[in-house]
């Protein structure tokens, strides 16, 4: 749309009687029939070619007004001359049907609808994030810290039960209390180390992913920006990066914490609390429950994943529209200001 306005209203109309030097990579503009001289820069060398000689253009008279452009002006900017209302541009404005048809056809071919991913998230996506997160070394450290946290937590609970059921609880209070305090402090240190490791690894992963995405965007050919609306790029750098920065690390920490908590509680109930062999083997009944839980979670996971993808796809046009709104007032004011100055000069 911007290229269409520049070509039809600026190059083809306002600058019709002037020499226009246009630097572009657009092949459609380069092959335009209105190009008189072409200079190509390829592999460090320039190539000059004359396409066609310039045709003399008779300047339009002031009275020959073809297109009228109204503009609302709140305050005069030049002098106090009387201005007609509405304001008219004395410059002849041509319709430029060839450029309208050309750009409408180009936009319909290049800018299509954003494709939405279908199915599960690929394993390569998880592998790339784990690599940016720190690799399997970081995952191993998190496993160690999480295991230490659960062991110390279960140990403190078991020790508290031993303390309350012992006969010398009153006499050996300091000894029992010292061990219980040590277990609690150790659990606090393990939780602190796990939290710091998750935060640092999450920041490192977000930096690595952002750097790779920025490098890919900078090294992308210019045709990518012609085919891709700005809202899609902004959506990747805004919505997706916020998920990587905030939600992914702490979601992983939460899921890992719940998993280790359930596993430690189950193992404690099977091997520590009870001594009956039959009761211990009854703990295997949790396996069908885990299977049912996973199947039910998958029923909710698929629509949640599809809704998230739909949200991301529909959010890109909104961002593009907001970007156009942001740049629209300044362009409109500049255009109206130029018309006011041009009209006052001719009146």
UniProtKB/TrEMBL annotation:
Keywords: ATP-binding, Membrane, Nucleotide-binding, Repeat, Transmembrane, Transmembrane helix, Transport. InterPro entries: ABC1_TM_dom, ABC1_TM_sf, ABC_transporter_C-like. Pfam families: ABC_membrane (PF00664). GO terms for molecular function: ABC-type transporter activity; ATP binding. The chain crosses the membrane at residues 175-203, 246-272, 278-301. Coiled coil: none annotated. Its main location: membrane. Residues 141-325 form the ABC transmembrane type-1 domain. One of its GO terms (cellular component) is endomembrane system. Gene3D superfamilies: ABC transporter type 1, transmembrane domain. It is a multi-pass membrane protein. The keyword Transmembrane helix applies. It is found in: Endomembrane system. The keyword Transmembrane applies. This is ABC transmembrane type-1 domain-containing protein.
């Amino acid at each position: 749309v911007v290229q269409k306005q520049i070509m039809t209203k600026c190059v083809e109309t306002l600058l019709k009687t002037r020499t226009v030097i246009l630097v572009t990579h657009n092949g459609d503009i380069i092959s335009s029939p209105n190009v008189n001289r072409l200079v190509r820069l390829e592999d460090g060398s320039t190539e000059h070619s004359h396409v066609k000689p310039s045709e003399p253009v008779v300047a339009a008279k002031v009275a020959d007004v073809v297109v009228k452009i109204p503009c609302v002006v709140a305050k005069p900017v030049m002098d106090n001359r009387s201005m007609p209302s509405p304001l008219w541009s004395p410059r002849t404005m041509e319709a430029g049907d060839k450029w309208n048809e050309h750009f409408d056809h180009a936009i319909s071919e290049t800018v299509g609808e954003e494709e939405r991913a279908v199915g599960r998230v690929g394993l390569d996506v998880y592998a790339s994030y784990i690599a940016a997160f720190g690799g399997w070394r970081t995952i191993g450290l998190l496993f160690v810290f999480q295991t230490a946290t659960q062991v110390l937590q279960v140990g403190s609970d078991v020790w508290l039960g031993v303390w309350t059921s012992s006969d010398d609880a009153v006499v050996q209070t300091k000894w029992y209390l010292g061990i219980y305090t040590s277990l609690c402090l150790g659990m606090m240190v393990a939780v602190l180390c796990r939290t710091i490791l998750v935060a640092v690894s999450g920041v490192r992963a977000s930096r690595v992913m952002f750097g790779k995405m920025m490098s890919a965007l900078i090294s992308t050919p210019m045709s990518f920006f012609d085919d891709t609306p700005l809202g899609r790029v902004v959506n990747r750098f805004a919505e997706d990066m916020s998920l990587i920065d905030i939600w992914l690390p702490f979601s992983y920490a939460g899921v890992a914490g719940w998993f280790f908590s359930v596993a430690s509680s189950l193992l404690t109930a099977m091997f520590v609390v009870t001594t009956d062999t039959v009761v211990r083997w009854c703990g295997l009944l949790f396996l069908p429950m885990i299977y049912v839980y996973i199947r039910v979670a998958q029923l909710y996971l698929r629509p949640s994943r599809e809704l998230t993808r739909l949200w991301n796809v529909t959010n890109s046009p909104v961002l593009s529209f907001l970007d156009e709104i942001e740049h629209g007032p300044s362009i409109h004011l500049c255009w109206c200001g130029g018309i006011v100055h041009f009209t006052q000069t001719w009146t």
